[in-house]
Specification:
The protein is 74% helix and 0% strand. It is an all-alpha fold. Helix 1 runs antiparallel to helix 2. 8% of the residues are buried.
Length: 61
């Protein structure tokens, strides 16, 4: 199950990183939306990493 949050997190992270060079000139609402997507992607990547670590630690079964 750890692959879904990692892959989804990477896909979600790719969207706000497009056009990041224009971040200073964007409207505030666009900046907030971009930061929310980045935060959501980092949350998914963290959850996937924790799930992966749990999968590796319980691989004895």
């Amino acid at each position: 199950m750890f692959m879904f949050p990692i892959l989804f997190g990477l896909c979600v992270l790719f969207f706000p990183l497009q056009g990041i060079k224009d971040f200073r000139n964007e409207k505030t609402s666009h900046k907030v939306t971009r930061l929310i997507f980045i935060g959501f992607a980092l949350l998914l990547l963290t959850a996937g990493g924790i799930d992966l670590a749990d999968f590796i630690n319980n691989a004895r079964n």
